[in-house]
Write a structure and sequence with these properties.
5-stranded parallel beta sheet, Glutamate receptor 3a, signal, 3-stranded parallel beta sheet, Rossmann fold, receptor, alpha/beta, binds 2-acetamido-2-deoxy-beta-D-glucopyranose, transmembrane, single chain, 2 domains
């Protein structure tokens, strides 16, 4: 009988001790709650100077809001500007952000950096928030601000009743969109001329492609390319020929 009581007493003592040890942590926890300053990261490419300004402006706008309901915590940000989007620079930027303990990273990717960025965000469980073109990536840590293009492009083609057009593309990303367009083309009996311009190095080649399409009386184009290429292509289309 005595032994049992002693045993109980011992156990209760242990519990009390455990609770006492836990108490400071509990008090600390309820006092601290959600941190009142949150660190986020920014990763910008050289070509996204304007977007960088918009980001800084938006954070400043948020931080100067006096309404506590709308601004429950202060945002602190670190930005890495990438000269190049090769995997070395991207890896370095992501890891330096991560080591600063950011909650999430806002940024842009392009064809060269998308895989590296997304595999890091997936592996390190750090959300990547992006207004870049949607990527077909299988990760839970990617938050895309833009909807997928597929629905928009198909609706546009249907709305304007395009039945014959040229589809120019340059990236792997373009493949899934191209696939949806081709599937719809079979169903709707559209006539689509598909050309990859991914390997075009000489800008005059764009002019030759467009001239060739003109001869075939193709008037409508869908261009699914990286921004730089679209600019180069449109420049060629708009500039009159040099030779008389
Ligand atoms: C703070 O923001 C909330 C949500 O937008 C709004 O309902 C409330 O009226 C605002 N308070 C003040 C004092 O402006």
């Amino acid at each position: 009988m005595r032994r049992i009581t002693e045993g109980r007493g011992e156990k209760m003592g242990q519990r009390a001790l455990a609770f006492l040890l836990l108490l400071p942590w509990l008090m600390y926890d309820s006092r601290a709650g959600f941190p009142n300053q949150i660190s986020i990261g920014g990763v910008f490419l050289r070509s996204t100077v304007q977007e960088h300004s918009v980001f800084r402006f938006a954070v400043q706008l948020y931080n100067t809001n006096q309404n506590v309901t709308e601004k429950p915590f202060h945002l602190h940000y670190n930005v890495d500007n990438l000269e190049q989007s090769d995997s070395f620079s991207v890896t370095h930027a992501f890891c330096s952000q991560f080591s600063r303990g950011v909650y999430a990273i806002f940024g842009f990717y392009d064809q060269r950096s998308v895989n590296t960025l997304l595999s890091f965000s997936g592996a390190l469980h750090t959300s990547f928030i992006t207004p870049s073109q949607p990527a077909e990536a299988d990760t839970n840590f990617l938050l895309q601000l833009r909807p997928a293009l597929k629905g928009v492009v198909l609706s546009m083609i249907t709305h304007y009743k395009w039945e014959r057009f040229v589809y120019l593309y340059d990236t792997d990303r373009g493949f899934s969109l191209l696939q949806s367009v081709m599937e719809a083309a079979v169903v709707n009996d559209w006539r689509v001329t598909v050309r990859s311009v991914g390997n075009v190095a000489d800008v005059l080649e764009y002019r030759r492609i467009v001239e060739e399409m003109e001869r075939r009386e193709e008037k409508l184009f869908i261009i699914d390319c990286e921004e730089e290429r679209i600019n180069a292509l449109l420049e060629q289309v708009h500039t009159p020929p040099h030779d008389p």
